[in-house]
């Protein structure tokens, strides 16, 4: 699980162009200045590519924190691929 | 297109507002036109977008392709000092089509072809225009991997990360090719590179080179190398073998595609390869920094790369069946990419003449010309209950063209329009390409004579419609018996685009604090 969290932090850090050590599992659109709506789309685009999955509209709208992205990834890994 | 930014590096790109492509080309005060430090201007557009309603029915719907091409032509003519990069038109398959919908008259495919032909014509006349063919990417990777509907509907981003990645690569490669940065010489090993097997063991007729199986992989590789040579790249051999054996292959093996004469230099001996490569450089008088070296042996590649780091030594593919594709994708496109508009023949010259008048028009094409062609219609409404939802949305989402950045939700707006001392004015925009719906609004404190909110979606910036909205605002105050109005500008990190909006519209600054400027105007 921690590995996964690190991978997600690395995606977020790459998309936002901020150092990974400024991010944590608690980071979200509300706590990170650079994480605005456009940056969020960049995060989701990169997330899709890194974990080889496709997000739907609801998921893009809701996965606005490191923790939410982590849960999204876990749900995909436990279920049949869509 | 903004997600493309990361994949264009090391190019440092600044992005315009969403949907402002044509306006930015025509507006002399846009960053693209004004900033003399910008050497390259990219005019990239999504698949389908400029086709508008014509995407579904070319016979009925107008499309913005021709207007875009006029604007592009005019921009290239006015800014011959800048390199202008654009992509080709591509219509995705997400539309009803017939099974015989190839290039028949009146289909989207024929519209796409017509626009692309005109694009090439513009490029022939404007040598500073560089065309990037995105159809190549769709053919290679497929739409399903490159187009994302979810991101389109959530945030008007048409493409997937894969698309942004390969599109960025393609743009960088095209710019390098356009600037003649292609390498000049391909140095080739022989055994298990140009043919299968070891010549010294199997003899000149025993090497794997045939029309089927493994031998065909090498034969097709040679065909691709031959084509590269015919487009102007030089070839050389650098191999550890006996020269007589190698010459026998050229003379005796009828399956060879490449002949001895195709090679400008042949270094076959048992000396270390870096020495041989330097000999080739001396013989041909070409610097090794324009060489690419292909060898199946990773040790030889490492030795060459260490001794001559300026040489490109691409990893040889592990699966033989990918040899030709690997060569095209990983060697030819990045290192030997050429950019050239095909030679014009007589018939095409006639076509140019026919289009002469159109081009002359295009060179004079400017922002006002564009705006008048758009046939803009603004429906301005006061306190319209059906506009509440969209109005609230606009106050939430608009950051740039927003004078006070006050956010409202739906109940707030509902209360606002019910209040007799207040008014909400919305502007509903449409032009001949379709309707954008409500794109601008203003909120007024009628009793105080104060404009408390004035904003416009960035999708329509540059079309001068804010003037119409402001006129209506002032008129409404006049109707209510006021002779003076007040207005405010609250600076944020994002709304610098409107910092002198009120000054430009006849208002006078009467008070200035760090977080707020107050203006007044007689009406």
Tell me what the structure shows:
The complex is a heterodimer of chains A (82) and B (523). Chain A is globular. With 82 residues, chain A is mainly α. In chain A, 60% of the residues lie in helices and 0% in strands. In chain A, helix 1 packs across helix 2. Chain B is of the alpha/beta class and 523 residues long. Chain B is 40% helix and 16% strand. In chain B, strand 10 and strand 11 form a beta hairpin. The longest helix of chain B has 18 residues. The interface between A and B is medium-sized, with 16 and 15 residues.
Summarize the main sheet of chain B.
7 strands, mixed
Succession of helices and strands of chain A? HHHH
Instruction: Determine and state the CATH class of chain A.
Output: Mainly Alpha
Question: How large is the count of helical segments of chain A?
Answer: 4
Shape of chain A: globular
Q: How many domains make up the 3D coordinates of chain A?
A: 1
Class of secondary structure makeup of chain A: mainly alpha
Task: Give the arrangement of secondary structure elements.
The complex is a heterodimer of chains A (82) and B (523).
Chain A: H1 2-16, H2 37-51, H3 57-62, H4 66-78
Helix pairs in contact in A: 1-2, 1-4
Chain B: H1 21-26, H2 31-34, E1 40-43, H3 65-78, E2 83-87, H4 108-125, E3 129-132, H5 135-141, H6 143-146, H7 149-155, H8 161-178, E4 185-188, H9 199-202, H10 213-230, E5 234-239, H11 243-252, E6 265-268, H12 273-284, E7 291-294, H13 298-307, H14 323-336, H15 346-363, H16 367-374, E8 377-382, H17 388-397, H18 410-418, E9 422-431, E10 434-445, E11 450-456, H19 465-479, E12 484-489, H20 501-504, E13 508-513, E14 516-522
Parallel strand pairs in B: 1-2, 2-3, 4-5, 4-7, 5-6, 11-12
Antiparallel strand pairs in B: 8-9, 9-10, 10-11, 12-14, 13-14
Helix pairs in contact in B: 3-4, 3-15, 10-14, 17-18
């Amino acid at each position: 699980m921690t590995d996964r969290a690190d991978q997600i932090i690395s995606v977020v850090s790459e998309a936002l162009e901020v150092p990974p050590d400024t991010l944590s599992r608690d980071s979200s659109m509300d706590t990170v200045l650079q994480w605005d709506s456009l940056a969020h789309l960049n995060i989701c685009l990169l997330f899709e590519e890194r974990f080889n999955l496709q997000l739907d509209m609801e998921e893009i709208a809701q996965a606005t924190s490191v923790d939410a992205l982590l849960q999204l990834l876990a749900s995909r890994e436990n279920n049949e691929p869509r | 297109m903004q997600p493309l930014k990361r994949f264009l590096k090391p190019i440092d790109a600044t992005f315009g507002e969403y949907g402002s492509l044509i306006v930015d080309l025509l507006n002399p005060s846009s960053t693209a036109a004004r900033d003399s430090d910008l050497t390259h201007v990219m005019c990239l557009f999504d698949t389908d977008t400029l086709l508008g309603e014509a995407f579904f029915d070319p016979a009925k719907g107008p499309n913005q392709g021709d207007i875009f091409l006029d604007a592009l032509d005019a921009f290239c003519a006015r800014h011959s000092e800048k390199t202008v990069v654009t992509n080709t038109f591509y219509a995705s398959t997400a539309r009803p089509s017939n099974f015989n919908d190839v290039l028949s008259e009146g289909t989207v495919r024929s519209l796409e072809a017509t626009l692309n032909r005109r694009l090439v014509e513009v490029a022939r006349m404007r040598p500073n225009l560089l065309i990037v063919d995105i159809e190549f990417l769709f053919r290679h990777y497929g739409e399903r991997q490159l187009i994302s509907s979810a991101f389109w509907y959530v945030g008007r981003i048409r493409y997937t990360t894969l698309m942004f990645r390969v599109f960025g690569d393609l743009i960088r490669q095209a710019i390098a090719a356009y600037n003649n940065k292609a390498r000049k010489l391909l140095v080739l090993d022989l055994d298990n590179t140009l043919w299968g097997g070891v010549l010294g063991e199997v003899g000149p007729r025993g090497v794997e080179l045939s029309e089927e199986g493994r031998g065909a992989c090498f034969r097709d590789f040679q065909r691709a190398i031959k084509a590269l040579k015919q487009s102007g790249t030089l070839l050389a051999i650098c191999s550890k073998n006996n020269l007589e054996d190698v010459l026998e292959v050229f003379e005796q093996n009828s399956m060879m595609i490449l002949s001895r004469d195709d090679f400008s230099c042949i270094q076959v001996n048992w000396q270390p390869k870096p020495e041989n490569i330097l000999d080739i450089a001396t013989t041909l008088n070409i610097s090794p920094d324009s060489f690419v070296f292909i060898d199946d042996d990773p040790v030889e590649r490492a030795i060459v790369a260490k001794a001559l780091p300026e040489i490109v030594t691409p990893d040889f593919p592990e699966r033989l069946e990918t040899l030709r594709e690997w060569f095209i994708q990983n060697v030819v496109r990045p290192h030997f990419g050429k950019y050239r508009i095909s030679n014009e023949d007589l018939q095409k010259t006639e076509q140019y003449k026919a289009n002469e008048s159109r081009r002359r028009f295009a060179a004079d094409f400017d922002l006002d010309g564009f705006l008048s062609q758009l046939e803009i219609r603004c429906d301005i409404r006061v306190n319209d209950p059906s506009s509440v939802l969209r109005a609230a949305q606009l106050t939430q989402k608009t950051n740039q063209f927003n004078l006070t950045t006050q956010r409202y939700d739906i109940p707030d707006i509902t209360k606002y329009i019910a209040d007799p001392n207040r008014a909400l004015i919305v502007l509903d925009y449409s032009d001949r390409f379709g309707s954008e719906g409500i794109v601008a609004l203003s909120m007024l404190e009628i009793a105080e004579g104060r404009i408390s909110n004035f904003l416009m979606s960035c999708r329509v910036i540059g079309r001068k419609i804010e003037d119409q909205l402001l006129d209506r605002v002032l008129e409404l105050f006049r109707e209510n018996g006021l002779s003076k109005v007040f207005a405010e500008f609250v600076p944020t990190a994002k709304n610098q685009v409107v910092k002198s909006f009120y000054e430009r519209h006849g208002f006078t600054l009467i008070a200035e604090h760090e977080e707020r400027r107050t203006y007044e105007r007689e009406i």
